[in-house]
Specification:
Structural class: mainly alpha
Number of helices: 23
Number of strands: 5
Radius of gyration: 26 Å
Strand order of the largest sheet: 2-1-3-5-4
Shape: globular
Helix content: 55-70%
Order of helices and strands: HHHHHHHHHHHHHHHHHHHHEHEEHHEE
Largest sheet: 5 strands, mixed
Distance between the termini: 94 Å
Strand content: under 5%
């Protein structure tokens, strides 16, 4: 009888979970459908001159993790797991642009599934759904999710590693952390963060010696695995890490602080993020009024301090160096005062916070690109914010109604961000216009015509068939970055027009416009010699 009762309860529980999954997986399906038009584009950004050529070289060589598998000019000394996995995918589904962009989208969908499933298991369905919604409606994630870049796969395994470590699934965590390090060196930030958390737990007697030994595998196994890669690289290339990369690392305090402030502006303002933070402030204040629990004021205080440090102060001010850590300390106080979180949930939030701080600092002392911050952005602005919002909503009598209103506001803001994100939309508009330009020259059937293309990606698209813009797979052989006496055509982009190039060339009567291609936010004019 007890078995029958247990069986029926188990079936009922699984049916409830399946019902809960309907909306999140429907959202993921809609996201995939919306991304289909982007799968046919050529390569752009780092795809066109870094990852795309490197992955096709790996495909020609065969999947391999060896630093000797492809030229150092293509690998740039990075670990090659992402390249090897894409090469394996290409062997199964073909090497077309559509295929490799499907691979990138597949990894992005895995991240979306992981965000919902892991957050649901650790914090509940409501938190999982809100975190998923914030991810899918993030403009940067939406536009780059079909591009061959390492930021999203890195984020996937960082997230999986922190989750597994928090749940004490140490074997899974060690695999995830190893994969993270083999995707890109920046994933190594996770090693000292988890190591510090393990050591702190042992010193404060929160974990036993036996638990210390078991959890230490999360650090030791990945450390040995990545050391093997660097040892092989030392033998093959003569150095552990690319000297060109080491040369651009900066450790100056003001230099780092300037990029930290720039990073915070992205966290707080980019893609209308301030709406979510203001929503957190409003809900927190309402929760204080509702419950008279003043611990809810910690989050608004931390947010206000971050906005002041980011938007009001200069990174050169002493106050900036005081307020930034003050906001972090207040955030820790919030976690300490909140009694509703389990040890696993606390561990997830603690390690996530430490990783994001370390990762942002790592990015700020290296060659800085905004998209590099995506793993930290996803874990803080999406996961931590979703956790806090759902936690605070529990203070209201009509919490279901408040939660639905929060979902709708976040979805509306996110969709509005995607539709109105001039930067990312302009990237695809720019790709459309540059496709028009390559089509124009290909229709001439003169691949030796002297052309001046000052814009880097326009130059790459005309000279490298691998980027996918040349429909007949034949490169133009006389493309230069400067105008000389032999130049017959000059390509002028919007940026160069603003620099005064077009009026200058027209004024000397040597060139005249023959064709202009336009999309919203991008215009390219082709000039011909008289």
């Amino acid at each position: 009888m007890s078995f029958c009762r247990y069986f029926l309860q188990s079936v009922s529980q699984q049916m409830n979970i399946a019902k809960q999954r309907t909306l999140p997986y429907l959202a993921i399906a809609i996201f995939i459908i919306a991304k289909i038009p982007h799968l046919h584009y050529g390569f752009y950004w780092d795809e066109s001159w870094v990852y795309g050529p490197a992955i096709y070289a790996m495909y020609a060589h065969g999947p391999s993790l060896s630093p000797a598998a492809i030229s150092i000019d293509l690998s740039r000394g990075h670990p090659l797991l992402y390249h090897a996995c894409c090469a394996a995918w290409m062997q199964l589904f073909g090497p077309s642009l559509f295929s490799v962009h499907c691979y990138a989208l597949f990894v992005s969908v895995l991240l979306a599934v992981a965000v919902y499933e892991y957050m649901r298991r650790l914090f509940g369905h409501e938190t999982g759904l809100l975190a998923l919604l914030l991810l899918l409606c993030n403009s940067d994630f939406f536009y780059t999710s079909s591009m061959l870049l390492t930021d999203i796969p890195l984020c996937l395994f960082v997230f999986a590693g922190i989750y597994a470590y928090s749940r004490r699934h140490y074997a899974s965590a060690s695999i995830a952390v190893t994969v993270t390090a083999y995707i890109k060196e920046s994933g190594l930030v996770l090693l000292p963060v988890i190591g510090a958390d393990i050591l702190a737990g042992f010193l404060t007697k929160k974990i036993s010696l036996r638990e210390l030994v078991r959890s230490a595998t999360v650090v030791l196994i990945p450390a040995v695995a990545i050391f093997i890669f660097f040892a092989v690289q030392k033998k093959v290339n003569g150095w552990y890490m690319n000297p060109d990369h080491i040369a651009i690392i900066h450790t100056g305090i003001l230099y780092t602080a300037s990029f930290i402030q720039r990073s915070m502006k992205l966290f707080l303002l980019n893609n209308y993020e301030y709406v979510y933070f203001m929503l957190a402030v409003i809900i927190s204040i309402a929760a204080v009024v509702q419950t008279r629990r003043y611990s809810y004021l910690y989050m608004p205080a931390a947010i206000v301090i971050l906005f002041i440090a980011t938007l009001v102060l200069s990174y050169k001010d002493v106050a900036f160096f005081v307020l930034m850590p003050a906001a972090m300390i207040i955030g820790v106080l919030l976690l300490k005062k909140a009694k509703r979180f389990t040890d696993e949930q606390f561990k997830f939030m603690r390690v996530t916070t430490l990783f994001c701080i370390g990762y942002v600092y790592f990015c700020c002392i290296n060659f800085f690109e905004e998209r590099y911050l995506f793993p930290a952005f996803m874990l803080t602005d999406i996961c931590v914010l979703a956790i806090y919002l759902v936690y605070t909503i529990q203070a209201f009598p009509r919490k279901k109604l408040v939660y639905i209103a929060t979902l709708l506001l976040c979805a509306t803001t996110g969709i509005y961000s995607i539709v109105n994100d001039a930067g990312n939309k302009c990237t695809y508009n720019r790709m459309d216009v540059q496709q028009d330009v390559t089509d124009y020259f290909e229709h001439m059937h003169n691949y030796s015509v002297p052309v001046c293309a000052r814009e880097f990606f326009e130059y790459i698209h005309l000279t490298d068939p691998g980027t996918g813009f040349l429909r007949y797979k034949r490169a133009f052989t006389h493309v230069r970055h400067a105008v000389d006496s032999s130049t017959q055509y000059v390509i002028i982009t919007s940026e160069e027009y603003n620099d005064g190039w077009l009026p200058k060339l027209e004024a000397n009567d040597r060139f005249y416009p023959v064709q202009t291609f336009k999309r919203e936010g991008e215009t390219i004019t082709i000039l011909k010699r008289r």
